[in-house]
Amino acid sequence: MFITLDEIFEEFEDLDPRDQSQYLLEIGYELPRFEDNQKRDEDLVHGCQSQVWLTAAPKDGAADPVLQISADSDAEIVRGLITILLASYEGLTASQVAAYPITDVFDRLHLRQYISPQRHNGLQGMVDRIRNSAIALSGTHSDVPKGEQAGVSVTVKESRAGAETDAPFDAESIRAEFPVLNQLIDGQRPIFLDSGASAQKPKAVIDKEREVQEGYFANAYRGRHAFGARIDEELEASRKRIAAFINAPSERQIVFTPGTTATLNMVAAGWGDRFTKPGDEILITEMEHHANFVPWQQLAKRAGATLRFIPLTNDGRLDMSRLDEVLSKKTRLVAVCGMSNVLGTVNPIAELTRAAHDVGAVIVVDGAQSVPHMTSDVQADDVDFLIFSGHKLYGPTGVGVLYGREDRLEEMEPVLFGGHMIDRVFKDHSTWAPPPAKFEAGTLPIVQAIALGTAVEWSQNVGIDRIHAHEQSLLQLAWDQLTAIPNMQIYGPGLEHRGGILSFRMHDVHPEDLAALLDRKAIMTRHGHHCAMPLHDLLGVSATTRTSFAAYNTAEDVSALVSAIMSARQILRRN
Ligand code: PLP
User: Fold this and answer.
1) Residue nearest to atom 6 of ligand 1 (CA)
2) Could you report the per-residue pLDDT of 340-351, keeping only the tens digit for each?
């Protein structure tokens, strides 16, 4: 490298901000340029305003190899930023690069003050690419023949669901990206096992919210000024990213809403009230969260329809062999969760959709628990509506998503009226803007909706399939150890039919007592009926303890949980 990080720090300290930009350009000029044949499409970094090509390859055959990073851009100022990155990572091994606190370098150089937020996104895109490569390469190349290593650029492939790599899932370094987990509570490491209620936020999401507030906040779809234009651009980029994440045909089918509960109510009123007639049937299940239960119960009351339930098997799955008993030409709508927030049961959505469509019913999927933890594909599943919340997907509170098939959104009535959602307002009537604006009356949760795009991007960068596999491995670990505890009852099906949620109860131990004892060890679980009273009635208990896993949980968390449960049993004298 032609310059060291210390030299860059030294130069920067003596310069005022305008001269610092000039200096970035100057060091950019010095950076060696790629030949044309090195500028490969697969090495392009997404999220950059200008074009950036970046490769990271192992320099040697060590298990944890020194990383050889090369990059180039068509913008000189970006080449300056690349120079800072290369100087920072110079000589470090893959695991050192993965753990390197690069934002400290940016903070020390006050980069945020003189590069645009868009450029900052691009810089973050480069950092993410390098970090993912470093994670993929640390300790994984020792068995690759040496000759094959030269010039191998990173084996991280981008897909809709995110990064695909054979590298082990490094939950500790993922955990390190969550500031709230990087603290001690009464001297203990916090173990957060309540992500089913709300997930923690990675720094990237928190930073994005701050970036919007500090950098260019304005109302959306209104101002033609610089801030307004930027906000519109960011919101649309988020909408597009979310559409790609669930494989929606178009971002026009992604409506920003306040969350799952509000959206289910919207669909029940906007679609349900229009199409449900006396004598119709609405089919749900007893495993639903109240948010996907009560709106349909109330719709049935308003419309004179009947609420029916798909029977459950003894182990808490939908009994598909009995679907014919409850699904008929009378069924107007089927509403079901992608994954139960209590039992963890993953429901066969594609199969249910086919059956619903065969009788002319529409299907509404409550994806609050499924979307954050497994790949969702609205086209493959052919669902009519898919709904989820930002805050369970590592994103902010106050924002959620309604996906609707194009024809369903066309025929659904808006339930909130006001600014932005109209086409024309006359004294005696009004006409509506096309979706998604039709369902986005008033001011959106702008900052949150933009940061939700960042949360989705974060999940894609880690890889939603990898997150799923990691959570399943924690589930297996917890299952093996919890089932060995005497008088332990775990609710719901075996591992092949469930996602990363485990609800349980020990004979004679009240979940609230257990939760209090676990909390003394900074282990955060949830107890109660989890907004699923009909399900708890069916289980014959008033409350359970629920642990729910996320990308940042580790095997150590599971061991701590199990040993804390064992000692709680002793304290409660149930051993
Ligand atoms: N549906 C399910 C399955 C849930 O788990 C939850 C929240 O726990 C909801 C709906 C409600 O989501 P929100 O509180 O974000 O509206």
Assistant:
1) 368
2) 999 999 999 999
